[in-house]
Amino acid sequence: MDNTTVYPIGTLGQPWGDAEHLAWRNQTTIKRQYQDEVVPKILALAAQFDVSQYGALSYDTARYPLYCIKSRNWDAAKPTVLITGGVHGYETSGVHGALKFMATRAAEYQDAFNIIAAPCVSPWGYETINRWNPNALDPNRSFYENSPAEESASLIQLVATLGEVLVHFDLHETTDTDESEFRPALCARDGKEYEPDVIPDGFYTVADTLNPQNEFQAAIIQSVEQVTHIAPPDDNGNIIGAPVEQHGVIYYPMVELGLCGGVTQCVYGTTTEVYPDSPSVTDEECNDAQVAAIVGGLDFVLRQPR
């Protein structure tokens, strides 16, 4: 690939300045409606759960309220489960998979756990089908103190109210556009050379390097295998450049990279990665894979001695 033509904004080898950031933002467009596709599903759950607003994005506070969905009769004696979706707004099943779990399966687990879901952390990204926020910041590299990404900062503030979190599911997708758009844009923004990689064909999870919980990850993989296929390693034994540690599982240092998966000090944590561009899966099967991941993980945790 000719890296001089990878991305149309910026100059090869030079990080973006204000003009390039503005040019990037100006080429974004609204492609779908958060208020039509997501908010009604959230509010409909108020019949079963406590639904509340934990913030709003300053880009348009009326258009982009941030909601969470919580178990009723929250009990400090129960362990807490956090589900996050749409940290990357363009990863559709992260949003709708979280909502489907809450609508169809969460009630089964409320006797054992407090459950809280933030199903669409980045609604501007959802609408524009973008990995970044309007300031060309990646919310999923911005989970740290004094975060410059308000999507991340708002979720950090919410998590601070929860006390200890035992389990965290952060629901994501890896899409073909990661290579055709988002990684080239990242390299252009940072003035780096773009080196193409391979998009994995199938589902996988990302565990925390410092606390991988391999049996927990395996239980998730086994559950998801009932819904969709698991990504094999590439010719180098990697998935997205990271060594495959066990079937369908790679490790990332969550806190070091500012990932949402490091926003709690949970015992059991996973970042799910659905592959929606496979010709063998439907959008609903992608949502079902996210639900299966949560169910498999929670069933595993319930089997552990306490």
TrEMBL record:
GO terms for biological process: proteolysis. Pfam families: AstE_AspA_cat. CDD domains: M14_REP34-like. Residues 30-306 form the Peptidase M14 domain. Keywords: Carboxypeptidase, Hydrolase, Metal-binding, Protease, Zinc. GO terms for molecular function: hydrolase activity, acting on ester bonds; metallocarboxypeptidase activity; zinc ion binding. The keyword Protease applies. Coiled coil: none annotated. Its cofactor is Zn(2+). PROSITE patterns: PEPTIDASE_M14 (PS52035). It comes from the Bacteria. Belongs to the peptidase M14 family. This is M14 family metallocarboxypeptidase.
